[in-house]
Write a structure and sequence with these properties.
binds NADP nicotinamide-adenine-dinucleotide phosphate; 21 strands; single chain; alpha/beta; 2 domains; FAD/NAD(P)-binding domain; five-stranded parallel beta sheet
């Protein structure tokens, strides 16, 4: 086979991409994986991870990703620590270009994830993983009997608030308008919950605390009035941006920019598969992304079997 023609190329190095690499190695597909500059994805911004199976003690997010990476490398993944800058899925074999490398490939797994929207406050960045979180399922447990706030008025914010209410003493939702955009069912559940209260027409201007969250400064958008709310945690639930700009016009995206899949991992282009948060706004967990990566690698293996004749011609 030509030097730069690969059986499979994986784009992304979160749990989905690295698990896909591990399974692709085991299927003898000698994968090449572009990590992107944000190696490891969202877990790199997480401190203790307590819900990934196999770790009886908490494991730090970056350590978990480092372990997955070493496992993928040990099994034979070629790792390229660069961002992909261009793809061509219109011609076959597909073409993928990073800054210093260009490869052709018989299949692709897209696992570029999604980026949580931020409030863009300096204090948010500083206190991320120290009381500021994007994931109630991951972190609610740390806020037993504590007071927390959630920013946002969509489905995620309502789900986060409801989930947090199982642990926290009090959950305050802060929303910039006077109406939620969440589905009726999720709104109803949140309004019914005695632990959840709402502050309307307001935004968070500042998160107070040096080493951990101690409170937030809220600004009412109608009156301009500022107030302080004492909380131990702030959950930012203002949506996600799927990292799909590179694939616009190449594979089908939904109206929010997520990759549309059929049969779990198949994109609109045969031979191009997607795994993890780049196509999943529902579960968004490390373990579900990892499971998706596994499925995508198994589906690639099946796809390549349908190409055996084509591949043997290339090898002549
Ligand atoms: P979303 O629907 O885009 O909602 C984001 C919320 O954050 C909106 O209320 C928005 O306010 C607010 N917001 C955005 N930027 C903000 C900022 N800079 N400061 C303050 N507030 C800001 O995002 P999502 O809730 O993550 O949902 C994404 C998609 O996943 C949706 O299609 C949703 O239906 C789906 N989803 C479904 C489920 C489920 O079915 N169980 C669960 C989770 C998500 P405005 O309302 O003023 O725009």
């Amino acid at each position: 086979m030509e030097n730069n023609l690969r059986k499979t190329v994986i784009i992304g190095s979160g749990p989905a991409g690295l698990t896909a690499a591990i399974y692709a190695c085991r299927a003898d597909l000698a994968p090449l994986l572009f990590t992107g500059s944000g190696f490891g994805g969202q877990l790199m911004l997480t401190s203790d991870v307590e819900n990934f199976p196999g770790f009886p003690e908490p494991v730090l997010g970056p350590e978990l990703m480092d372990r997955m990476m070493r496992q993928a490398e040990r099994l034979g993944t070629e790792i390229v620590r660069e961002d992909v800058v261009e793809v061509d899925f219109r011609n076959y074999p597909f073409r993928i270009k990073s800054l210093n490398k260009e490869v052709q490939t018989l299949s692709v797994i897209i696992a570029t994830g999604a980026t949580p929207r931020r409030l863009n406050l300096e204090s948010e960045k500083r206190l991320m993983g120290r009381g500021v979180s994007n994931c109630a399922v991951c972190d609610a447990y740390f806020f037993k009997e504590k007071d927390v706030a959630v920013v946002g008025g969509g489905d995620t914010a309502m789900e986060e608030a409801t989930y947090l209410s199982k642990f926290a003493n009090k959950v305050t939702v802060i929303h910039r308008r006077d109406k939620l955009r969440a589905s009726a069912a999720l709104q109803k559940e949140a309004f019914r919950n005695k632990k959840i209260s709402f502050i309307w027409n307001s935004v968070v201007d500042e998160i107070v605390g040096e080493k951990k969250v101690e409170g937030i400064i809220i600004r009412n958008l109608l009156t301009g009035e500022k107030s302080r709310l004492s909380v131990d945690g702030l959950f930012v639930a203002i949506g996600y941006e799927p990292n799909t700009s590179l694939f616009r016009g190449q594979v089908e995206l939904d109206e929010k920019g997520y990759i549309v899949v059929r049969n779990e991992t198949e994109t609109s282009v045969p031979g191009v598969f997607a795994a993890g948060d780049v196509k999943d706004y529902r579960y968004r967990q490390a373990v579900t992304a990892a499971a998706d990566g596994c499925k995508a690698a198994l589906d690639v293996d099946r796809f390549l079997k349908t190409k055996e004749e084509y591949i043997s011609q290339l090898q002549v």
